[in-house]
Amino acid sequence: MVASRKMILRLAALIAAGTASVWVATRAADEVELRNRAALAQAFADQGFDWIRVDTDGLVARLAGTAPDETARFRALGVAGSVLTPENIRDEMRVAEIAPPDLPDFRLEILRAGERITLLGLVPGDVSTGDLGQLVAAAVPGADVSDLTSASPEAPPDGWPASLSPVLAALRPLRDARIVLEPGRLTLTGMAPDRTSAAKIRDDLEYGLGDGMEIRFDLESPPPVLSPFTMRFRKEKDRAEFDACAAGSEDGVARLLAAGRTAGAPADTQCTLALGAPGPEWLDVAVAALDALARIGAGAVTVSDMTVSLEPAEDSDPGTVARTLSDLGAGLPDGYRLQRLSGATSGDAGMPETADFTATRPESGPVELKGPVGTADAASVIAAFARARFPAGSVDAEISPGRTVPDGWQVQILAGLDALATVDRGELSVTPDLVTLTGVTGNPELPSQLAASLAAALGSGTPLRLDVNYDPDLDPALAGPTPEECIAQVRTIQAETKITFPPGSSELDEAAREIVERIATVLGDCAGVPLEISGHTDSQGSDESNLDLSLGRAEAVVAALVSDGIPADSLTAVGYGESRPIGDNGTEDGREENRRIEFSLHDAGATPDFAEDSEAATEPGSQIDTQTTGTETAHDPD
Fold first, then answer.
1. Taking the mean position of all CA atoms in its chain, how far away is CA 64?
2. In terms of domains, do 502 and 614 share one?
3. Are 25 and 88 in the same domain?
4. Structural domain count, the chain
5. Phi and psi, residue 113, nearest 5°
6. By three-state DSSP, how is residue 583 classified?
7. Whole-angstrom Cα distance, residue 298 to residue 492?
């Protein structure tokens, strides 16, 4: 019994001792974890690593959290390794995704004041700033270029043009301008030589830069100068209109139009802003003259510089005419004079009877001259003048010398022909009573210019009727040549003469250089039209040498066009060697046909299919239908 108790006590003592050991071991492990966690936390806090989470499990420490970058993660591991054995560290950290760096603010500002051009801003690419200055200097010969830009090695951003050629082409004709180029947007402000140039610059920019570029365009053009400065207004029973309307300010234009509408002119009447008025009182005189004609009721009034000419209608009330003339004359400023015109009729005593002289300029076909001109010498002078003013070979003169004509008849005819040559189509009529010019023009300022020039040539006492109307479809400022029209013009030059090369050479000789200059003149109005200039040879010589020669000659033509101001990015040189014959390589004439330079639009998607059977290509006189629109022959040695 005593022995059993002793055994129980011994077992109890052993159990108690084991339990105490486990408890002590557990407490010891907890202390290690706490110490490790505290040591790591303190080490990370000292380094400013507040983004790390530490989880300890016995001797093992797990590091979690998002490191700002890879360097920070490695530094955190190094700090942990200085506290614990690296084998006891578990790396569960992540690295934050790095956002792509912001692209620099690319911006090119070009300032031009006369011959001085300044470049400012930051431009993309690896082109040095000096090269950009040279590019601008080459585009604007004679300009003093100050290049203050910086270049970034970053690639051009979306919306940055691949080529500055259209921008520099727009800068060339402008004497005063500011161009700001940013990704996706171009802003152009300044002064253009005239409205036609301004419209062409805009069209070329829109074509050259493409639809993806926003263009903010504010180009002004100086008003025309009229001499003599002329306003002319006609009022008939069923019609009232300006033959010429010009004023020196926007306010003056508004006043003239208001006075014209009061006199019966339609609401859509136009008036030109122009320079050349003899003084500030001219506008008051013109408005007073319009009011006077409105009081009379019908007739015509002209204010040409400082002369006011009033021509009442034949059935006007004499009393009203007399009072109106008296009031108008009394109100004229010093230096102005008033004259009353009475159109003579062919039935007046002493006026020789004569037929009308007419000149008709149709839309197509020759200009037809008909009617009496006086002496034989006058007929020769008038015919020669007409042939000089109108295109060669386009005058059909049926004029008759030997008849009696009124004084000043030949002067009126010559002045009228000179004016007729400026309209797109029209008709001139000269009678003893009246000089009449009708027609259409694409220049909105021409009617006022014609009134001024005819008034100066004929004198203010000559009855004159102008009916020249503006047609937007004829305005070159609104419609430049289409790519097809550009190629057609090149074809015309090619039909007249051929580009030639010395045997075995790709150097342009003097004659060929002159031909390329003519083509460049045509292409100058076709800025941005993509063209392929292709070289071709006959079949003599190896395929490889023919290919190299044809490419070299095409590249020579491209280089010559670029030197004449045609943007390089609109031209592509291609050498086809002997692969595209248009003549029989078995004959000298056929080989001559095959040695050529061709111009074609570079937007053709499909290349022409060439028959594998070469008989069609080598048949004498046959031609393969290619994309080309004209050929230039180059005398190859092969």
1. 62
2. yes
3. yes
4. 4
5. -130, 95
6. coil
7. 52
